[in-house]
Specification:
Number of domains: 1
Strand order of the largest sheet: 3-2-4-1-5-6
CATH class: Alpha Beta
Radius of gyration: 17 Å
Number of helices: 7
CATH architecture: 3-Layer(aba) Sandwich
Shape: globular
Largest sheet: 6 strands, mixed
Length: 208
């Protein structure tokens, strides 16, 4: 059986590189945008600085910006795509920035709610977190099955995802709130997974 007190599972969350919408500070959710050339260069610069740890497993959102980032950072690995890790659906706010939305009554209501209200014609944060959770449980189960025969095995699991995916999972299994885990493009977190099932926790969260 898999024993979380003996196995060491390190999680490496990395947000994808910068896209044009990111550069313009637009809400980028369902729009499937590729990385900017400058975004690729920044990733390569970070990689040369050795800020990204090696990983044995690699999972990614299906969206171009994440798959491209995975191929740049870990070209030797073939990432497993997790459909549930697509970014949140921003609905009417998609591909717009603050300047374009500041006079929108629904946007002002969303801001005043602390970002808790559902996105108009989009997705609720609650449903998004549950969607991300389903994907996370599946990848944890895959890793668990692989290492349960060796109680002393330690592994590092890389996840190339969206800022929203990171906030969803760390707020669910960590100790802080959703927006506490905001992170820049190409950056992320290294942390430890403990427990299994309903007892899963993510601890010792440090920034990349």
């Amino acid at each position: 059986m898999w024993n979380s007190s003996e196995n060491q599972v390190t999680l490496v969350f990395i947000r994808h590189g910068q896209t044009q919408a990111n550069k313009e500070r637009r809400y980028l959710g369902k729009k499937d945008e590729s990385l900017l050339e400058s975004g690729k260069e920044v990733l390569l610069s970070y990689k040369e600085q050795n800020i990204y740890p090696t990983v044995e497993y690699l999972f990614t959102s299906p969206m171009k910006r994440c798959v491209e980032t995975a191929n740049i950072l870990y070209p030797e690995l073939c990432p497993v795509v997790i459909p549930e890790w697509e970014e949140i659906d921003f609905g009417r706010f998609e591909n717009k920035n603050y300047e374009e939305l500041k006079d929108d009554i629904q946007y002002q209501a969303w801001l005043e709610s602390g970002g808790v209200l559902d996105f108009p014609e989009g997705e609720s944060r609650e449903k998004f977190i549950l969607r991300c959770k389903r994907g996370f449980i599946r990848i944890c189960d895959e890793v668990r099955q692989d290492i349960e025969s060796d109680s002393s095995k330690s592994v590092r699991v890389g996840m190339i995802v969206h800022g929203g995916t990171i906030m969803a999972l760390l707020s669910l299994y960590g100790e802080k709130q959703y927006f506490d885990y905001q992170v820049l493009n190409g950056r992320g977190y290294i942390c430890n997974l403990t427990g299994w099932g309903n007892s899963m926790q993510i601890k010792e969260i440090t920034r990349i």
